[in-house]
Amino acid sequence: MRHTKKVKLQTPLKGEKKRASSPHPEKKAHQPMGKDVAPIPQTPKGKEKAIEGNSTPNSKREGKARDEEHPIPTSFKLVAGSYEKLLYGLDGFVTLNDESKLEFHLKPIFIFPAHVSCIKAVAASPQGGKWLATGSADEIIKVWDLRRRKEIGGLMHHEGSITHLLFPSRSHLLSASEDGSLCLFRARDWAVLRALKGHKGRINSVAVHPTGKVALSVGKDRTLRMWDLMRGKGVASTKLGKEGEIVRWSVDGSKFVVQSGSTMDVYATNMDPLHAITHPSRIHDVKFCKRVDGEGEILLVAAEDRKLYVYQVPTDSATPSIVAEMIGHQNRVKAVQTLEMALPEASGRKSTTIAATVSSDGFINVYDIAAIPSSSENPSGLPKTIEPQTSYDSKGTRLTCITLADGDASSAPIAGSGKRKRDEDAEEEEGSEDDDDAYGANLAEDEEQEDNEEEEEE
After folding, report:
1. How far apart are CA 299 and CA 320, in angstroms?
2. Distance CA 18, CA 20 (A)
3. Segment 437-458, tens digit of pLDDT
4. 210 CB contacts (<8 Å, ≥6 apart)?
5. Mapping DSSP to helix (H, G, I), strand (E, B) and coil, where does residue 453 land?
6. CATH placement of domain 66-279+335-343+390-423
């Protein structure tokens, strides 16, 4: 990637007329409708659509197996931001050594100053990892083409530091800021579809339900807010009594966690409290993840005391317990991300899930979730110590955030069942001037169009 001083988003692509810049935020705030969190909306009616996250859109490919549509990547890309404004990009892959054991590798592909202030958030689009978004204290969201390794431009919609970025689907980006607003961008032309307002002050974190229908956010105003992404408005809010720093949905969408300081409160979707966890040290990040062995879900906790803790999340009222401690850092663990990836056929395992962490010590560590023992493998119940599979040393850079994306299958060093065919030089995208404000955001249609465009590219 090559750094550029341009911050105006240049969206026109080949054969496409130049578009106007992103629209200004809506003046009217979307106010919540009630003091209690409402149930998650069910099947959308009429033209109201949800963001299609992991579900299959109604397209000509409906009925295909999921691994045929979006095969598990055989390699991965890792991108990390830092206080020093530097953006680190690494390629990750797995090989088999002479003893037929798995070896994980990280290879740096770019390092450069991406912003004029510290980088606070990074996010990569799922199912292909084409787009990368970075957010900074300079109030700008920069968009990058991760495959071509070039900057697309800057989104200057917010009037405060960017606190959180995520791609709920390949076709949409959701951002949170200290200005108290959430913005939903369409990746096709990077237009602002919605400016969601309701928080008083800084928004710390936002999470989208696996169905793509609703989002939760927490902020400085000590409230938890629910947003209807089908209609683009707030629907409910509740007072937490403390400032929520992180909110995350479970993988199956049946529960969510709100973190504050050293505490984590797990709720059901109807706001019934399920678990209250007090960790021994301050928490910096949390992430739900599926166990590789299929024994439910675990909660990864990045903490001040230099470890990544693994909590087993029970399905009943039992207290969550620490089943593993991932070591290897010499300073606070700032962030964690996970990604499922395919393994070499000769390994005897079809796939695994990796967890990648960044720390203020400047190291990026990668762990294998498969190393976490099952209940039958650990009858004593004592936490197992797990070391990283591989590490990268940034030489003292204070790393702040991390994201993982599918690697380029064409350059992956192993052959797996999830190999993709891509011709980056032939990539083209066609936009349209559809009115996305008519009914909700028409998000599912955008996802389907992106699928069709990628088929044409291949």
Report:
1. 9
2. 7
3. 433 445 555 555 555 555 555 5
4. 53, 54, 249, 251, 252, 253
5. helix
6. 2.130.10.10
User: What tens digit of pLDDT does each residue of 218-227 get?
Assistant: 999 999 999 9
Matching residue, tokens 């999470």: 207
Helix (H) or strand (E) holding 289: strand 283-290
- Token output for 155: 């989104």
Q: How many Cβ atoms from other residues are within 10 Å of residue 31's Cβ? A: 11
**Sheet hosting strand 214-219, strand order edge to edge:** 203-208, 214-219, 223-228, 233-239
Q: Residue 81 pairs with which residues in a beta bridge?
A: 87, 401
List CB contacts of 197: < 8 A, sequence separation 6 or more: 25, 26, 29, 30, 180, 181, 182
Contact 150, 130 (CB under 8 A): no
- Tally Cβ neighbours within 10 Å of residue 208: 24
Nearest residue to 112 via CA among 138, 65, 149, 71 = 149
Reading the block at residue 424, the tokens are: 């980056």
Report the pLDDT value the prediction gives residue 443, as an integer from 0 to 100: 54
Q: What is the rounded CA–CA span in Å between residue 228 and residue 214? A: 5
pTM of the model: 0.80
